[in-house]
């Protein structure tokens, strides 16, 4: 690759000389003097279509990994590349989403022409005329009854943020630590929950710091964030782009206000920026504090699993010291110090409730009390999905075909079940199956009214609704060992543990209802 600022004939970062006939589809030029790959294909099979954006990402990641202190100075011209913007537009289009302050929707852009939209955006970026607009304030309800503020950027801004994320993410990804799981390629909430389960099973991991950052997105220090970005990026145009997004105003009820600190939550680039900011916590903890406990972080939510109470107290003290340097603070009411020993306490994390339960099998065979950390959908998660099912089965739906109602319910319970299916969720799955069944039976009863015979309702069993296509949650629990990163897989098979100790620890017997309810 030859940097745009370099003189013609000067050496690029890969040792090749500059040439005016360059074709920079990737980081390595495919044409030019001094290019070692000239004359041979860049892909082992020339008949296969090469994704130039993915190839560029691989080269950026490899360069960042090879040179740990390298600062990239020619990234802006990658962001306005047509193929990068096309991939960014495809992602924004696939995710849908509402319009921003300009009221421009994805449907209107498609109607006017996607190609012209991408071309115009590329020209605007290339000419340096791009300026982000204010984000539209939107409030969403929280589980505790409060409201969470979101900032919805315009579709145009979302595409540019996605393009920047495609270029920046592989560079910073190589620096992120293994304790971080949120909004990273190849990592998931299930892996974070499994890491906690493995660390807390047995006689270890009985003390947990359940931390909550006070107003993270509102108190994030922009100067500190930009300094961390500058550790890897020296391109002033990219730095200016990020700074403009951070300083974009917030539009609410027709009035635009400027935020003095933090960043609006809801932008495409926000998760990456939050990971860059909180990577300081991961680095300090991994290098200086790992002996006190295991840090598991998902975006701005994290827990620390410790072996002793002394380690727990020291872990809390160290976190406060690190946060003081980051100008953050722990929420005094929501941050808790917990003891999991013998199932004394449990905690909620990423929608699951984690609690230790005693193995009944070991107690029966060896008369030993051995506890394993298990998880299932939290009370708040069950309440939310039930509320959603209730909204989809109003009394007025009794006049619709049951198959139409079931078609609306299935995506909700299937998606909810897929997320929680890797834990000890059988009891909660059975509970939700029963709730859905009762809601549908109520519709049948309302539809027939006084003409309903008493014997007819007996026909509407669970199986009858399943034959109409209703998704069944009970029996869909699967084991997540195959989904874990290689270094974090348990040496003992998850299937073997379940067979030995039971899904519910062996002590609490879950009575499964019959198909007839």
Explain the overall architecture.
This protein is α+β, with helices and mostly antiparallel strands. It is built from 18 helices and 11 strands.
Brief digest:
By secondary structure, the protein is α+β, with helices and mostly antiparallel strands. The protein has helices at 52-66, 76-79, 82-95, 106-112, 114-127, 155-173, 189-200, 216-219, 222-230, 236-246, 270-289, 309-326, 360-366, 379-392, 402-420, 426-448, 462-467, 494-501, and strands spanning 135-141, 147-152, 207-212, 250-252, 255-257, 294-298, 301-306, 336-339, 347-349, 352-358, 371-377.
How many strands, what sense, and barrel or not for the largest sheet?
A: 4 strands, mixed
Please state the structural category: alpha+beta
Return residue spans where pLDDT drops below 50 for at least 5 consecutive residues.
1-24, 26-44, 482-517
| Mean of all residue-level pLDDT scores | 83
| Strand order, sheet with most strands | 2-1-4-5
Keywords:
single chain; 517 residues; alpha+beta; four-stranded mixed beta sheet; 11 strands; disordered C terminus
Topology:
Layout: H1 52-66, H2 76-79, H3 82-95, H4 106-112, H5 114-127, E1 135-141, E2 147-152, H6 155-173, H7 189-200, E3 207-212, H8 216-219, H9 222-230, H10 236-246, E4 250-252, E5 255-257, H11 270-289, E6 294-298, E7 301-306, H12 309-326, E8 336-339, E9 347-349, E10 352-358, H13 360-366, E11 371-377, H14 379-392, H15 402-420, H16 426-448, H17 462-467, H18 494-501
Parallel strand pairs: 1-4
Antiparallel strand pairs: 1-2, 3-7, 3-8, 4-5, 6-7, 9-10, 10-11
Helix pairs in contact: 1-6, 3-5, 3-6, 9-10, 11-12, 14-15, 14-16
